[in-house]
Write a structure and sequence with these properties.
459 residues, alpha/beta, Urease, subunit C, domain 1, TIM Barrel, 2 domains, 9-stranded mixed beta sheet, 8-stranded parallel beta sheet, 13 helices, binds dihydropyrimidine-2,4(1H,3H)-dione, binds zinc ion
Length: 459
Amino acid sequence: MSILIRNGRIITADADQVADIYVTDETIRAIGKDLDLKADKEIDASGKLIFPGGIDPHVHLDMPFMGTFSSDNYETGTRSALFGGTTMVIDFILQKQGKSLQAALDEWKGRSDGNCVGDYSFHMAVTDFNDSTKKEIKNFTDKEGITSFKTFMAYKGALMIDDRQMIGLMEEVKKCGGLINVHATNGDMIDYLIAKHRAEGKLSPLYHYLSQPEITEAEASERFIAMSFYTGCPGYIVHLTCEGALNAVRNATKRNQKVFVETCIQYLITDASLYEREDGAKWVMSPPLRQKKDQETLWAGINQGLVQVVATDHCPFKWEQKLMGKDDFSKIPNGHPAIEHRMELLFSEGVNKGKITLNKYVEVACTNPAKIFGMFPRKGTIAAGSDADIVIFDPNEKHKLSAKTHYMNVDYSAYEGWEVTGKVKTVLLRGKVAIEHNHCHVDKGFGKFVRRSKVAQIV
Ligand code: DUC
Ligand code: ZN
Ligand code: ZN
């Protein structure tokens, strides 16, 4: 099957040109003006923007968490990602404390194998680092193509590791050519504040926010960065939300240390005032939403090159699940749904409102995740030889986001009624038209596991 996309404005991280794209099988074969080629299918993209397929490197699908499972499984999650122009996601495997990494990998394969509509990979979350876990790292980097290892400095008693384990893991991961991702918040401080608020009968969603003040994130980020510097292990801070944490990253640049940083779309465009609403549980996530001043810091951080990735931390729970914490914020499953809306919201709020350029948009939503996580240039760009993961985007179409029209398996929208300018129209995944005319044309099982290489490219 060959496809010729005519006359689109092709945006990559470093170029902007009107040209044709010729695709056969799974791959982009040629890019040029007025290509003298015939194809089985022609798509007229005049007046449209063309982006590489989006990559969301932070999602939690069908994940056992806080006594329940996130409500999008691998099928509904990757399908709704495709509708929103995200052709690949990286999900998290969680080791159970006291059990092996391999046992967790097997469990996650059991839920994901054959069920993905879009492409996917995994980060391996190490929640119990010991002599036996240490021996397993090399198998992941060298055989499984899983080269990033997630750590939690919070969720005490469930996922959190201490600094001793962190240093040990960093030394091993460095030796194996991998990268450490971190949820950087001070778990002990948060644990204390949660207990304090509960003891005082302060149980509403607002106290979720007040139990994780900015300083808990700034402190842990600084500590993580110091350990990464000391060990020389490449570090990637996931879902960074605030000024204090970004200042820690900026300080590291003064000693020429490179730390990769991800923020998520919700931290750029929403703020903690939502916790005062009756339905504030919809935005109970960790870290919590912050203040308006932090949004400005994060947009600036993107333009300063300190923040390289915009992800989602997609971790949806239905309203019934959120009600598990109706009388106690600490029992509300943490997470919110966004996998489908990242590309459109970032365009509408970022590019359309003049906060970031089109090239920066592609860089943070598509290219940098591919570079940092060992998939570039196969993924994350539009170039001859790359996978034909392509988004055709109408920059002018206005629409509203709603639970009535979204494809995510969750019965509310965290963005109900948001007016968005710009719409994903057609999506190719490895040369196949996956989304067209508001329909998904690929089935579960089409999505492939992507093996990743070891070396994170400096971005
Ligand atoms: N934060 C969330 O909000 N959900 C899943 C895990 C996390 O760290
Ligand atoms: Zn996290
Ligand atoms: Zn997460």
